[in-house]
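User: Assemble these into one structure.

Assistant: Restating your components, then the assembled model:
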Amino acid sequence: MPELPEVETVRRGLQPVMEGARIIKAEVRRADLRVPFQRDFASRLQGQTVTGLGRRAKYLLADLASGDVLLMHLGMSGSFRVVKADHAKTPGHFHHPRGKDDAHDHVVLHLSSGADVVFNDPRRFGLMKIVARKALDQEPLLRGLGPEPLGNEFDAVMLARACAGKKTSLKAALLDQRVVAGLGNIYVCEALYRARLSPRRLAATLSTKAGQRKGVAGGEPTDHARRLVAAIHAVLNEAIKAGGSSLRDHRQTTGELGYFQHSFQVYDREGEKCRSPGCGGTVQRFTQNGRSTFWCPKCQK
DNA sequence: CCGCGGGCCTGAGAGC
DNA sequence: TGCTCTCAGGCCCGCG
């Protein structure tokens, strides 16, 4: 799923259930996700109170009273749902209508509140890992991440600087989690459309004196960079408000669908009319770095 | 530093 | 109905 808005939606769904609750038991039904579970995974969670639930890029971070942090990533197909304890194993129960069996329920956190938090991930590209809080800044999974796109540090100056000297396309740069952390294919396509910038444009053109070397002072962000930052802010905020986008797997923790997919302007709209008033163009698709790019060549330059 | 291909997995949808 | 093929919201690795 899961780009930033979907992960944030999940976080908001889990927070009231998990914060302040104690993990009576962590039940691992399948330990071979993208990263194999640590041997002491279940025992380090058992009995721990969750003191907070945060997010960094596409990662969820549950703070534990022990000083550990539980890192969670949803990969491509991961989802969480909250069910009452007695129903965690009941397929098709009204609390979690998914129309399928629960063969891919890999982890169940049994909470003192009587709720169970169930992690489901058919493709198993997701992961869970426990890290000591004091070692979090050296955690390889988080180390290289760029700024939060909705954080204060992320602005046109920073984005232009991060893209300075890059020989790659704007599309590829925005998907690079080291440049800005949390965007995926959908929201990159949508943000570029809103900013009216071509996905093929050179990333370095976000600052003046294109081709300048990375980190060189004096490169000013262009209006394009400002437009792009504004577009990223807007699309992410709107998507979060809508509960994320539900294409295949994403659901809110209640089982409800997000509905931002109805607001897509270009993503998955190949051959359809551009929605920009008066444009009259047609949404095109092509492959960039192995992934589909959707855009309107008439609007985006 | 960069693009590309392949891999990790399963499921949905299209076409036959 | 069922087969085969392609593609998918993420990310990592090695190659040239």
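Residues 34, 75-77, 104, 121-125, 165-168, 172, 214, 248-249, 289-290 of chain A lie near DNA strand B (CB under 10 Å from a C1').
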